[in-house]
Design brief:
Layout lengths: L6 E2 L6 H13 L11 E5 L5 E9 L6 E9 L9 H14 L5 E5 L2 E5 L4 E2 L8 H15 L11 H15 L2 H6 L5 H12 L6 E4 L8 E3 L6 E3 L6 E4 H11 L24
Antiparallel strand pairs: 1-2, 2-3, 3-4, 4-6, 5-6, 7-9, 8-11, 9-10
Helix pairs in contact: 4-6
């Protein structure tokens, strides 16, 4: 399913989505009689979904309501379990930790539009913002989420490696050293599971595009929980530090620049 960009919801959009949007508007006291009252704007930066801001005029004057529509990406099931992600999002919504869930349709969902800005790659190196992220992450890691609290890191790495080998040609597998990664994962698992490890609910994808900040209140909100699970808290911190070497708005978003990996002074 695709939405018309910078325009109206097309007639080809699923009736299910239209009905859910109309229902959400109705809850807020707005009556929508024509689909052209919904204005669609694409949002950049999403990695595994298509994300749109949808506005419509209210029944209370010139103000507009805003929601975020997330259309699930195809083929992402090799990276995470969508059902688990939806359950996590619903729980986070109930806990007031992220945007509220407003509605669901078969290919996606409608979320509360957060009036805050998405951070940039430079923001992660700002000491004040970094301290706010640290405090929020501590709160996130302490959440008591329902379901099993088993560490998923090692199983997930092996699953991704298996999928990578299945899709890669022999030459590509050799180029990226895939044949040696199973042993490396086993070595890391053995070394990093010795002794005490604090286990908490981890975001596991703490890149700048998944962190939002209200400019007035300086409140930090973590969004997008596709990869969230119980893991060693140290892994969440390490993942965030690695993301500080990434720029997803560059011409090479898949290449990390470890020359800008945070040093001891920064962290």
């Amino acid at each position: 399913m695709a939405l018309k960009k910078n325009g109206f919801i097309p007639s080809s959009a699923p009736e299910e989505l239209k009905k859910v949007l109309v229902a959400v508007a109705s809850v807020w006291g707005d009556t929508i009689e024509d689909m052209e009252e919904f204005h669609v704007f694409p949002l950049k930066g999403a990695m595994t979904n298509e994300v749109f801001q949808i506005n419509w005029p209210t029944n209370h004057g010139d103000l507009h309501q805003k929601v975020l529509v997330r259309v699930y990406g195809k083929g992402v099931e090799v990276f995470f379990n969508r059902d688990d992600e939806i359950r996590t999002f619903e729980c986070m919504s109930e806990l007031g930790q992220g945007p509220r869930l407003l509605g669901r349709f078969s290919d996606g969902r409608i979320e509360e539009f957060i009036h805050a800005r998405t951070l940039s790659v430079a923001d992660l190196r700002d000491p004040e913002i970094s301290s706010l992220i640290a405090a929020k992450l501590r709160e996130f890691n302490n959440l008591d989420m329902p379901g099993p609290k088993n560490v998923l890191l090692w199983e997930r790495l092996r699953t991704w490696l298996s999928q990578a080998k299945r899709f890669c040609s022999p030459s590509t597998a050799k180029e990226f050293g895939l044949d040696g990664l199973e042993e490396e994962i086993s070595i890391l698992e053995k070394e990093l599971t010795q002794g005490y490890q604090e286990i908490g609910f981890c975001h596991n994808d703490l890149q700048y595009g998944n962190i939002m900040m209200d400019e007035e209140t300086r409140v930090i909100t973590l969004i997008d929980y596709e990869y969230a699970s119980y893991n060693p808290v140290a892994y969440d911190l390490a993942n965030h530090f690695c993301e500080m070497a990434a720029n997803y708005h560059s011409e090479t978003p898949h290449i990390l620049d470890y020359s800008i990996y945070p040093d001891v002074e920064l962290v």
